[in-house]
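One thing: can you check what follows?
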Amino acid sequence: MMKEGNLEGQPIAAVPLALEASRLLRNLGYDAPSPIKYLYDWPSKPGLTPRPHQIETSEHFTIYPRSYCHSSMRVGKTLSALWAIDYLQKEKKIGKTLIVAPLSTLERVWGDEIFINFPRKRFAVLHGSAEKRRKLLETDQDIYIINHDGVEVIIDDLMRRGDINLVVIDEVAVFRNSRTRKHKHLNKFLNTRGVETWCWGLTGTPTPNEPTDAFGQAKLITPETIKGQSFTHFKNSVMQQFGPFRWIPRKGSEEVVKRVLSPSIRYTRDVVTSMEPCLIERHAELSEQQKKHINELLRTTVTEIDGTAVTAVNAAVLISKLVQASCGVIYGAGGEFLEIDFGPRLKVLEEMIEENNTGKVVVFVPFTGALDALAREL
């Protein structure tokens, strides 16, 4: 229902403060607010209040069912997304939510934020064996959290869940290659079920390598912005070839990326100066090699790596050897460096470096052997 009137000689119109009205007005070019700004209680831990940019980000999510948040790391976009989810679920605009995120953030970022700020919100982290994931998916939760590669493991079960109609993809740039299996399975869930599904893509680095990184993300979230283009056609529109193997971005490619990855919102740390410093834990799993040698050290205080014995003669040495094994390089009896697989730990570090591509990164390493190995890998 709309009411018309006159204010100081200018015609005005009043419409209900509702999502549908706000969304329609935004599409017409009016900067209409979302009801979340005025009709939501913004639950949070004691002492925390939403910053203006977080409120605007939550507004953005509620107005645009398929959209992006390109804010840089550490500006609070995780909590903005959770506030939007909570509001939409309370208003019964959406049902269940699936959060697809890096493995290292499932518990320590998403799980912690929900647990601390939304104590009544039910959630499950879908990680472990395929059977364990399926059993957790069968439980009645408000939010399910799964890692990027985990979608493929239970895709058939997810396809049967018509009540999951919001997907949040954290670090969505991981899906920049539309030819990967994980992209194809997530695209299947988002765009072929016949269920109207909201989807928000979160990343501070939408094109970490080159403009073509936008293609896979747009194909997932806003396929209408690429209008059925093939990857080759899109590449030719944003890249120019010099020689058989060298491609460079075309002039104006930034505008093409901006158009296909829209609607979007972005805040950076140099603008958001009110955010306090924060400590965020990331979980890195142990490789099979690390598990093997750690278990042997705990059981017998001795393990063998490539024919070289490693012995812990007392409790203090044992603790040191366990930390060395966790880092991926253990000192042998003669002080030599014995490397074991530390791929999962390295992957988490590389994720964090890629997320922070606009700033410097300092990595503290406790042992020289691990320091040398890490320097070589990076």
In short: The chain is about 40% helix and 15% strand. Residues 77-90 form the longest helix (14 residues). The mean pLDDT is 92. The two ends are 60 Å apart (CA to CA).
